[in-house]
Amino acid sequence: MVKNVLSIFKIRIGMLISFSAVVGYIVAEKGPPSFPRIFLLAILTLMASAGAGAYNQYYDRDIDAIMKRTDGRPLPSGRIRLTKGVAFAGIFLIFLSVITAFFSFNYVVSLHLFLGAFVYAVIYTVWLKRRSWINIIIGGLSGSFAVLAGGASANPGFCLPPILLAVVLFFWTPSHFWSFAIAHKEDYQKVGIPMLPVILDNYKSALFILLNTLFLFISSLLPLFFGHLGLIYGVIAVCTGAFFIGRNLQLLINPTKEIAWKNFKASIIYLSILFISVIVDVSLG
After folding, report:
1. Burial call 82-110: b when 16+ CB within 10 Å, e when fewer
2. Rounded to two decimals, what is the model's pTM?
3. d(CA 214, CA 226)
4. Residue 32: predicted pLDDT
């Protein structure tokens, strides 16, 4: 039962989104961080993400039943039969998160949590995923809104540091997911999902990934350029960026599913270390 719940609500992805929101809060908070506020922010972000994830699984249950990597999920496998209940639970979680954020923080946090969930559940899942290769580019805004929600929980006015980190997350998502899509290309072809590697060959997709990662690397240096983060962040941003670009070059040279999967895992390592370095830099700065 616990495994089914974790799968339906995509808790692992939600935890990464929640961490992104916390990083947004920390980089925007001028005084000592409030751990109760951080905890509440993380829970509300996780709720919104989980709700969007549940609706995604409800809407995609037809293609999930066909793809090898998803046919064991609770809905297509039949382990959970209350399909409309999953959709209702997802929508309920989103609105509970948004309403609680409105009264606990401010309307800007509430708005960003709603937009993040809306982009993933509606713009990406319902509208773009089955229609256009730019699906994941626009869908990547979902994570960016989590960073902005975190920043707004500390400073609801214009605050540049979380905006810059939101840009980083925006550019990170295509490099992350296109690598995943190469590794699972046959599944997406089977159900007609126009992910980039489906409409292009693996080499051209790897080239797009590398070009996008170069923009990601440049965007990761902007907080340093504008003076919002210091030497610790700068050194780690350069080192992790070089590591990720190196992985991208390996994929370009040898664009196989195995190397794409390694590139996918490298993207998670890259973002995790980069965002941890933000917390360390702010704490020691």
Report:
1. eeeebbebbbebbeebbebbbeebeebbb
2. 0.93
3. 19
4. 83
